[in-house]
UniProtKB/TrEMBL annotation:
This is Uncharacterized protein. GO terms for cellular component: cytoplasm. Keywords: Hydrolase, Metal-binding. GO terms for molecular function: dipeptidyl-peptidase activity; metal ion binding. It comes from the Bacteria.
Length: 635
């Protein structure tokens, strides 16, 4: 499916005193309301965002003979209140929203609209049939088709045709449409072998620049005769990116914080220009934001594309790329976060910041690599956020959903060129995740003598450690792990968190009681209801839990009841962390595959625990409910 594009649009960006075209000379990236107003009027922004977007390049849904894959009874089961959990974000009665200035409330409206626009981009990236299938479901729902209505509920929750549920089962909503390694980034009929052979041919024909674009994070790839061609996101999704950029510019006109406004303008510029350096400028500015009322992030993460990293499996192609100095980067999915910064929660997060250099100093083999954090340079900001909206990849519930993020990732130009990182924590997501059935779940899986150690705050503390460890360890070179890069990185963050928990307890940051609470809470929260080997986060859970059982740090009796053996956890975590760091430094995709294969075993112990969780909690799927965002989107 092709997206309708706007041609001959003169992108505009802004300096303090002048508006300049993208062909101008040097520019200061600062906002000015009068200049912005003048330039916005000249953009002829006719396609004002309403409640949904129409992709003119898509087939009319009536022409597509979709067959719904789940029968009515199965849909009723999956969407029943007991099985379909809700992550409810803030509404207009939330204190944080009521305390905003009118200007910030107006800005928030435009940020929500930008987020809604960009979700449509994600749907195309995820699956070439998503848009037309969604249109079909909406049309059928209006005609009174109850099967379509319930299917649409699941589609909107998982944001796509294909997903996994909490138990690791496949949820495919359209018959005959299966998930593919290329998602929507490459031609649907492209096989892995053909992909490799085309790239080899293109290299032999000296189409080196195009090969580099194809293997870049920010392109969509199409056929070009016997070759392939890549189009930058800013061109492929020009209409959507320009419309979203305009909403950001409008937000910058009324937002009360100058620093935040400068970031919004930089981010708008990046959306309108085919220039990775503009993304880097926006990312660097965003990573420095600490004291702003509002939060807006375009997350660009590469968890789903398995086609691009597959080139690492082809020895001939890998050697050719290495000789040319071309690193294959998995493609970025678009996700968006909109929120209001919670000052009290943010102050709590910042208490750990001064300990980041100490944590970096305790990473294994630290002399062998560069880290994002050093003794003299702590480029890490962090905020706690009242969530207004989560769209695109960030808001897709596929067996799990994000509680926080540490961005930009190491493959981004901003980090490569010396920029910092920023942690953002999602208040409503963590509150909802552990709101229901927790006592029943603990009874089902945890030794009663250790129930006293389970604590919701401890889970937040573990998430804080996990996200901060993403800033530690090898900064560069992990792309060679291919499709396993993300699993290994998430594994590192968890094991690093457990090791640093012990380091910080010895320094007095945590008490011994807090340490026990974190350990019990971690193990209780990160066992799961079924095997899912397709998701980096859930795969690492299987690996870690199985490893801890083998190391004696976690005992499981015949009834599936766990006991945490406190004295054995840190040595086991440290052992696994060392293995992970060596993989990131020296390993190949094959090495990572063998490491995962060795540890990712769905053992009898894990199966017994999973059985008990299922008895205590019937949830299969979940969805985001965003009352404030839904209201603002149509104003």
């Amino acid at each position: 499916m092709k997206i309708n594009r706007i041609n001959n649009l003169n992108s505009v960006y802004y300096s303090k005193n002048n508006a300049k075209s993208e062909h101008s000379g040097s520019v200061k990236y600062e906002s000015n309301s009068n200049v912005l107003s003048h330039q916005l009027n000249s953009l002829a922004y006719a396609n004002k965002y309403m409640t949904a977007l129409s992709f003119k390049g898509a087939l009319d849904s009536e022409e597509k003979n979709f067959k719904l894959n789940l029968n009515f009874d199965e849909l009723k089961r999956r969407t029943s209140p007991d099985n379909f959990a809700a992550y409810t974000l803030i509404d207009e009665n939330n204190d944080a929203y009521k305390k905003l200035s009118q200007g910030d409330k107006t800005a928030l409206k435009h940020l929500v609209k930008a987020a809604k626009i960009l979700e449509e981009v994600y749907l195309v990236q995820d699956n070439p049939h998503n848009i037309e299938f969604k249109n079909y479901l909406e049309e059928q729902t209006l005609k009174g088709n109850e099967q379509a209505r319930l299917t649409l509920q699941l589609f909107n929750a998982q944001k796509g045709i294909n997903a996994k549920d909490i138990e690791g089962g496949s949820v495919n909503l359209a018959r005959g449409i299966e998930p593919k390694p290329q998602r929507g980034f490459y031609p649907e009929d492209l096989t892995e072998d053909e992909f490799h052979n085309i790239l080899i041919l293109m290299i032999k024909k000296n189409k080196i620049a195009e090969v580099k674009k194809i293997l870049n994070q920010r392109t969509m790839v199409e056929r070009d005769g016997k070759y392939l061609k890549a189009t930058d996101y800013t061109d492929y999704f020009k209409e959507q990116f320009v419309n979203a950029a305009t909403e950001l510019e409008l937000a910058a006109l009324t937002s009360s914080n100058d620093d935040f406004n400068r970031y919004l303008i930089l981010q708008a510029n990046a959306l309108m220009m085919n220039n990775p350096y503009m993304d880097a400028l926006a990312d660097k500015k965003w990573a420095k934001l600490q004291d702003t009322p509002l939060e807006f992030t375009i997350t660009r993460e590469s968890y789903d594309d398995r086609m691009t990293p597959s080139v690492n499996k082809n020895k001939k192609l890998s050697a050719m790329l290495k000789k040319l100095g071309i690193t294959p980067y998995a493609k970025d999915n678009i996700g968006v976060r909109v929120g209001i910064v919670n000052k009290e929660g943010t102050e709590y997060l910042l208490t750990i910041k001064d300990y980041m250099p100490l944590m970096a100093d305790n990473m294994p083999f630290k002399e062998e690599y560069e880290q994002n954090i050093s003794q003299n340079d702590n480029k890490q900001t962090m905020v706690d956020v009242e969530m207004v909206d989560m769209t695109g990849q960030l808001g897709a519930y596929r067996g799990a959903i994000s509680l926080a993020s540490n961005l930009p990732n190491n493959d981004k130009l901003s980090v490569i060129s010396g920029g910092g990182k920023r942690n953002v924590y999602h208040i409503q997501m963590r509150e909802a995740k552990y709101a229901d059935n927790i006592t029943k779940k603990l009874d089902a899986i945890l030794n009663k003598s250790q129930h006293k150690y389970f604590d919701i705050q401890a889970l937040h503390d573990f998430t804080i450690l996990h996200e901060n460890v993403h800033s530690l360890g090898p900064k560069n070179g992990t792309e060679k792990l291919g499709i396993y890069k993300n699993t290994i990185e998430e594994n590192k963050a968890d094991m690093g968190a457990l090791v640093m928990l012990d380091v910080l307890t010895k320094k007095g940051f945590y008490t011994p009681l807090q340490q026990k609470k974190l350990l019990v809470s971690y193990f209780s929260a990160y066992v799961q209801k079924g095997p899912d080997f397709s998701n980096a986060h859930r795969l690492r859970n299987i690996m870690q839990n199985n490893f801890f059982i083998k190391e004696g740090a976690l005992s499981v009796d015949d009834n599936g009841i766990m006991t945490v053996n406190f004295e054995k956890v840190t040595p086991a975590a440290n052992k696994m962390l060392k293995q992970i760091i060596r993989l990131q430094l020296d390993g190949t995709q094959k090495d990572a595959q063998e490491y995962i294969k060795q540890n990712a075993v769905w053992s009898d112990e894990l199966d017994k625990i999973a059985h008990n969780i299922k008895q205590a909690d019937s949830t299969l799927n979940a969805r985001i409910v965003s009352p404030l965002a839904d209201k603002l989107a149509v104003q």
